[in-house]
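Lay summary. Proteins are chains of building blocks that fold into shapes, and those shapes determine what they do. In this project we predict the shape from the chain. Here is one chain we studied, written as its sequence of building blocks.
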Amino acid sequence: MSLSTAERPDDAGEVLAEIWSELLGIPAHTITPDASFLRLGGDSVLAVRMAALIRKRLGVVLALADVGAESTVAELTELIRRRSAGGPAPRALPVELRRRLDKTAPFPLLPLQQGYFVGQQGGWELSYESAHFYSDVALLDMDSEEAPEALADALRRLAEHQPMLRARVTSDGMQHILPLDAPAAVPEPQVYDLRTASAEEAAESLARLRAEMIANGPDPARGPGLDIRLTLLPDGRGRLHTNMSLLLFDGWSATLLNRELLELSADWNAMPAPLDMGFDDYVSSVHALPQTDAWTSDRDWWWSRLDDMPLPPALPLTTDPREVRATTMVNREQYLSPGRWVALRDRCAAHDVTPSTAMFTVFAITIARWAGHHRLLLNSLQLNRLPLHPDVHRVFGAFASTMLLPTELTPGSTFAQLVTQAQRRFTEHAGHALVTGVEVSRELGRRRGTHRPVAPVVFQSTLGMDAAMGAQQPDFAGPLGQLDMDDFFHQLRTPQVALEARFYELRGSLAIVFSLVEELFEIEQVDAAYADLVALVGSLADGDGWDRPVDLPGEPNEARTGLRLGRYDDDRADADGGPPATELELTIAAVWEEVLEAPVLDRGASFFDLGGDSLLAVRALARLAKEAGITVPVREFLADPTVAGVASASRTDVAR
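And here is the predicted shape, written in a compact code that computers can read:
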């Protein structure tokens, strides 16, 4: 009987070198045992794929903490040998992929999906009717007669291949996938023919269309989570408009969707290789995590640190966020040229840090200077695809999660020192990522007695995504013509976020983006902070910003005046305690008990202190409206989330 690869530990180093060669695009024979994944061009995104390939080819399950970007071939080879020889089992990935038998049955939302769903209910701070990412791009040399049908046909084939294009979200916060032949299951592209319009008429029509799609994103509670539109312009020109619901698609999925849609549009007969798993299988599998010792260990790790968590950056505000009714977030955007971006990546590798960590450190420094203090809580959006299966990176879905990053920037340090500390801190926190930032934020808010966002300043990096996917997005899409990425526009709308920095690659350049709720800030301060951010990135690319001390604020000035982010009072009413006192309160308490699966004996106890969260609150309010005719606006519920408060708000609402 021949031995499997996993039973031949002496081959582990060779197989690992082949995996690195495949992921990094370098010859396997040039990869030495002391070479680190990071120095050869790897990062945390590629490390997830590496873990999946190790599992597939060597039969060894590694924790995400085991395959950090800093790992060397020798270190991983030794770890694989120990695991193959029956060494201690990995702490992470305590669940296996379980395929669902009924593919049309509802399945839960992941924590960040829950956050987006709750944010669409209209009552939470900085919330919108839809959370979505909009983009449009110019098309050249298009076959205007063939393009509409080519796009529609590509969408139909893609919806067959990727079931999440047919997903819907229910009113109580579950998701399900429609059969391919169900009415309106497949997104249908809308086409606008402006080929005979004047230049002025076409510009006005495009501006109206863009404004409409930015303000009204797709809502999978009412229809497809993807809205695709095609504008036909004179002389074979056009524009492709894409609107994706963040409830169903993360950043990785958005990039994958664009690639696959363009590839299918270019070839009427193409069909991607079949998928051996679905997003629903993944969600159902990780839904069991809270019942595992590994998840409990991660929870205890986070919970033990919550009381010492810093506050979010105290950015000066022009108005209280709960008074803002923004329709979108606005962008500040610049690009680092391909040559300088290559130089920056090389300098990061020389300092043994990932480009994403360098950009996070740049952002933290910028925000600290703006806020006036060096200890602050930031939020990070993570491409969180646990390597349960080798196909996990090929599947559409909202896999992403957040991770809270308490950050302390030591005054007098050089950038090289700060980024090295950030790399260690990030690696440590990522090693406990089975508990997501949404779950940690809920507990932090409960301890602080607030229902307002505890970490509304966000960092997002998708650097390395193109390399992880193996190729760049195609430039040519058959009848749709040539994509002109020099004429590309995008807009983000994310609930409960005041400011988000985004870093990504576009045609060999580094994009540096601020997305923010502009109504909250003094524009001059935003522009100054963004200029500071761009200048610091440039100094790192040029090399002179690594070794000089970074200018940082000292201790926060307690005499600072004016409204600042995270420094406002929760003027929540305190209801009298005691058992529910009226028939209305008894009805409310009964619904709460069913939703919370716990007794509700005190009319003055907070819904959240009783074990509720924002998703359960939405379900409770929906059931009260449906079963008892009790309608309470979300904002009034949050002002006093008690049985007595809901009863009072209900009477007030009825009185109107």
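What the prediction tells us: The two ends are 80 Å apart (CA to CA).
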